[in-house]
Every structure is written in structure tokens, then in C-alpha cells.
Write a structure and sequence with these properties.
eight-stranded mixed beta sheet, alpha+beta
Length: about 200
């Protein structure tokens, strides 16, 4: 005790430095844990469940059904549709899964994988650049890009319909999950390109 009866606690500089380092180490471990946590990760926008593949198939089906009936742009009366997924650049075409194709409702349309169709190198006109390999008839090619997750209930993807040089439609489609289903529409503010 000092002369006025008050207690004085002396802490050495080494003890303060050691306490500060310990506190800093604990804070660093806490921040590292938070950053590695799936709930904190800013890139983690897709559903964390194990049904991601099924959710993406639901999204693709809803987007394709929307694009089959899009009411803007050219509309030759072709009943064959060649589908491609994860198409992120010209010439980058991937077939949809067999399980996705089986989910399309029965209709007057013939749904094909992209590999069952071909892009004609020298079409006879600007409306016949895609054809069904089996029948030789003209067809639409409908492409979807990879899925971009905005959050767990909203996604966006680039979409196109193409059948030739003067027969195309391109835009961004947004799908929202509501009442157990994915609903597709043109993304707010998205441009629509038509040839």
C-alpha cells in the first residue's frame, strides 16, 4: 500500500505485452473461424444442403419451360428444341442430364440434347442454322449458362434461343423460389437482344 492507503498494482511491461499477444492470438483464431464458416463465406450463396444437384435441375427445367414459350423475338414454328446447359461462351455446349429431359411434360414439342442436333455450317438461309440430326428438320437451340446464385431463393442465368443469323434471342433470366417452385422471368433491368 502507498501512503494514502490505496493499493497499487504494478504490472510489468513484459506481462502487458504477453497479455496483448494472447488476446491478439485469440482474436485471430476467432476471425479465422468466422471466415471459414459456411455461414460467413460471401461466396456461399447456393443452398448448403446436399440436394444442390436436384435444385439446379429444377431451376434448369423452369428456365427451359419459360424459354420454350418466350413471346419476344422471332418465332418460326419449329417443334424441335435442342437444349444445352452450362454454355458460357459461343461453341461451349453441354448436354442436359437424361433425368432432366425425362421431366419435360408431354407436348407437341420434341426435346433433344444438343449432341442430337447440329449447327449447320452453311445454312440455306438465316432461319435454318440448327437442325435435328435424326429427322433433318430445322430446330431451335436453347442455351442456359451456368447458374449464378444470388441467394438461396434467387438465381440468374444467361439464356438464348437461336435458329440462325436472323433468328435469335438473348437475355438474362432470373428465377425465384416461391411456394415450392422456381418461377422464371426476365431479370429486372436486363436487356433483350433479338436478331
Amino acid at each position: 500500500m502507498d501512503g494514502d492507503g490505496k493499493g497499487v498494482v504494478l504490472i510489468s511491461e513484459a506481462s502487458l505485452v504477453s497479455s496483448f499477444r494472447s488476446l491478439r492470438a485469440r482474436a485471430s483464431v476467432l476471425m479465422l473461424g468466422l471466415c471459414l464458416s459456411p455461414a460467413f463465406s460471401p461466396g456461399q450463396k447456393q443452398p448448403p444442403d446436399s440436394n444442390l444437384r436436384l435444385a439446379e435441375e429444377d431451376i434448369r427445367l423452369a428456365a427451359f419451360l419459360y424459354l420454350l414459350d418466350v413471346d419476344r423475338g422471332p418465332d418460326p414454328d419449329y417443334s424441335i428444341y435442342c437444349l444445352t446447359v452450362d454454355s458460357n461462351a459461343p461453341g461451349d455446349h453441354h448436354d442436359p442430364s437424361d433425368s432432366l429431359l425425362k421431366r419435360f411434360p408431354q407436348s407437341h414439342r420434341t426435346i433433344r440434347k444438343f449432341s442430337e442436333c447440329e449447327v449447320v455450317k452453311k445454312p440455306k438461309d438465316l432461319f435454318h442454322a440448327v437442325k435435328d440430326r435424326q429427322s433433318g428438320k430445322p430446330a431451335w437451340m436453347i442455351s442456359l449458362s451456368s447458374i449464378e446464385w444470388v441467394d438461396e431463393q434467387k438465381v440468374r442465368l444467361k439464356a438464348s434461343r437461336y435458329c440462325g443469323g436472323l433468328c435469335g434471342w438473348w437475355s438474362t433470366v432470373e428465377l425465384t423460389f416461391n411456394d415450392g417452385n422456381w418461377k422464371a422471368a426476365i431479370a429486372p433491368g436486363a436487356d433483350i437482344f433479338v436478331s
